[in-house]
Model the fold of this input.
Amino acid sequence: MSGFKTLQGKAAAMDRANVDTDQIIPKQFLKRIEKTGFGQYLFYDWRFTKEGLPNPEFELNKAENQGASILIANENFGCGSSREHAPWALGDYGFKVIIAPSFADIFHQNCLKNGLLPITLPAETVEYLLQRAKKQPYDLKVDLQNGIIEDEYNFSATFTINEYWKKMLINGWDEIEITLQLESSISSFEEKRFAVQ
Amino acid sequence: MGKSIIDKIWEKHVVHREEGKPDLMYIDLHLVHEVTSPQAFSGLRMKNRKVRRPDKTFATVDHNIPTDNRKVINDPVALNQMTTLEKNCLEFGIPLAGLDSPEQGIVHVIGPELGLTQPGMTIVCGDSHTSTHGAFGSIAFGIGTSEVEHVLATQTLWQSKPKTLKLEINGELKKGVTAKDVILYIIAKNGIGFGTGHIIEYCGETIAKMSMEERMTICNMSIEGGAKAGLVSPDETTFAYLQGRKYAPKGAGFADVVENWKYLVSDSDAQYDKTIQIDAADIAPMVSWGTNPSMTSKVNEQIPKLEECKNELEQKSLSRALEYMGLQEGQKIEDIQIQHVFIGSCTNSRLEDLKQAAEIIRGKKVHPHVRALVVPGSQQVKKQAEADGLDLIFKQAGFEWRESGCSMCLSMNNDIVPNGEHCASTSNRNFEGRQGSGARTHLVSPLMAAAAAIYGHFVDVGALLSAETVH
Done:
């Protein structure tokens, strides 16, 4: 997993509430046994018509959103199933940051594990970003190190993210390796917990 | 300050705590299935890592297996996922209830049924409905595949402690109102995100009177309200359910653990971050009409109107949902015609669910415009139901009687609702495309699904049962 400190990129607006992981990656694409190659199926049922052609009405198919690396979404993004295929698909498609007023818990956690930064901002701030991104090609700069997000129109907002996850994202560390360094704590916990009573 | 059961279980599982970090939590039971595990095992193999506690890990196949003829698997990609799980379990020494095992079933049905699920445990699985196991007084939650790999390798997880939510339900449930209606009512009333960031403790006299099956149905759908987990304090009902189960403690040891389990109750002065009170008498049989579980109304009500929406975002969601569902604002719920009925899923596929549905079905016929199927939650449920003659009641009425699996809850196999058709489903999610591309799902209880199968549209099962009592 590669980390990042700052990101400048195009932002696409998806002004829908409660976007669930069944929409992000429909179930017919969950049968693969790899982590890669899911981007082509991202938002499949919305992105493509019944005939398999790109749906011109769908947000991500609009010309101004091509090449977007930041997704601006609405409340409760990523609700439903725990499928990690959702962040795999978003990442594989090219997204690195998702901004929303709120996220579902498991999805939020899954993003952090895959180098995808979920940024929670107040609803009115997200509304500003959505309106900007809906009108024209819109770039945002995300500074993960300092927790700042800016545009070229003098907009600036701060965001917070747990220091632990920030470090993991910036450094792209292997979390299991970190935990295995605590092997003796795990072993002594097990000895106490499973001691014959 | 007193502690809640959530605080008590959490504290008992902290392996390592450090300022500025989540807690490193020990996991007592890890359930594994074919869809969310292959990449986790590959990850272990790449780094030459072992499964730390295969004895605290248990696997089954459920999500993409066929429920008609399980000897023939036509989907090569699904078959590959199943055989991959078999190979992984063999290589890493993990017990597996495979397709030919009498213990096979939906992971959240077999955990409790085998007595693997026990009070006071931390339980995880790469599936969001892991919250089901909270019915036994455990902290049980769904995780992604990276976390599956982490648990396999370390038997722990880094977790920030969620907030706590006390959800108290008191009073008598009306006739025809089941646990499914209770949880659908809670989500409809409080919204799809009301539990986000929280673990719910369900309590109150209504919950105390419920069977384990009913408590499982409620805890199962905690995630549909956004909650990390939901649980119920263990009591005599819990202990009686577990006694004699395959993996539950045996003999004198059972009485000893029960003594410990009795401490798993919230102190009377326990503090919660949020409290919700529900009056059981306010609840009616519920039907979802939209594309998320909060879009649900009482069976004798109408679909909301656009003008009743609180804001523009809600209005947009409503009109989008109605367009997808092919329904009108203000339409009566009872007028919705249905073409499919699915009784099954980790929410409602246990023996008690099937018995309730069978009572409605007995001696009746499925409406000619309806295709109906029953998919028992496990091979054990199926076997017991057949011993009780339930299969005959369903089959004589025109239902298909299937092998156990997740089936039409997420339609990863070939149990699919066709584009544009409506299904009365005892499952947990009515998201767009969940039961098939363009499929229109209505979440209901087994009683309501059974009644809809006979009438071809939704009917108030409470009124139906009252009328039958009079005759």
Observations:
- Chain B has 16 helices and 19 strands.
- The radius of gyration of chain B is 22 Å.
